[in-house]
């Protein structure tokens, strides 16, 4: 199933892949089926849905894409949009994420996609990783069907994970505590997961799991992809076993978090089009506050608009990037929420909003010590933190 909002005057199409983790063995798929049925079956899906963020048809909420044809593809395959296995004697679940996308494309061609100029395949979280895994395949599918004129692009939100060392190693019991590499390694076998050919060729047989990690698959992609990633992604911290509520954060944890931001920043340095705010959060493009977040004075919708223009211009004459229209935006400040436009932080237990200073204190951030390291007065550091410089 999918949801469609047609916009007859537009030749732009936006296909959105929903996220929601995954399951990688019989036990955790059973649990998921019992507790999160809507991510396993379309039976209880509502007849209509309201589009928000980049799926909104209100120009105030969605300045550059409000008029596009919108397609929302809910996530019921639990396989990071990679699976190609039907239900069998051995496996009572079907994992068909990759095939669902192909079928939706086939059907949309008859509903106007055939005359599209641009198809933007977007997704958040597992859907963002799904974009990286499927964008080239969608382009190939349309070419094979005879629609070479459609420019296929990707927008991956919060799906650029690191296969880093966990803060605390745990056994791989459930989706949340299992190290990302191990979960995907098991999942890919269980789902019969597909990865793009060009990425697969970079790795030995049995090592295809590498292609689920953005920085490894990105260099092999042919389609242009815009990467949106919080430098301190909550889902990444969760699988790394960093938990930020309850007790103050120990120093080791605090250093781990800062290092995570550095590592992530490094993996994005050769990504042509990227937007990476130094915030602690997860997913952004379908949030209604997505226009508020800025990196170096540029909002995400503006950066996407600049990217659109740069692709349009480079098709014409390969000119230098447009002045005053940046597309490579990565925060350089070193800790969570050092960017003043970050979304509000709430204490997960009390639901109270926290400002940056309260949050950092809660994290065990030592203002005296930090000020000393930076060679400045504590009061000056506090002022900088609260203004986000």
TrEMBL record:
GO terms for molecular function: palmitoleyl hydrolase activity. InterPro entries: PAE/NOTUM. It comes from the Eukaryota. Pfam families: PAE (PF03283). GO terms for biological process: negative regulation of canonical Wnt signaling pathway. Belongs to the pectinacetylesterase family. Notum subfamily. This is NOTUM carboxylesterase. It comes from Oriolus oriolus.
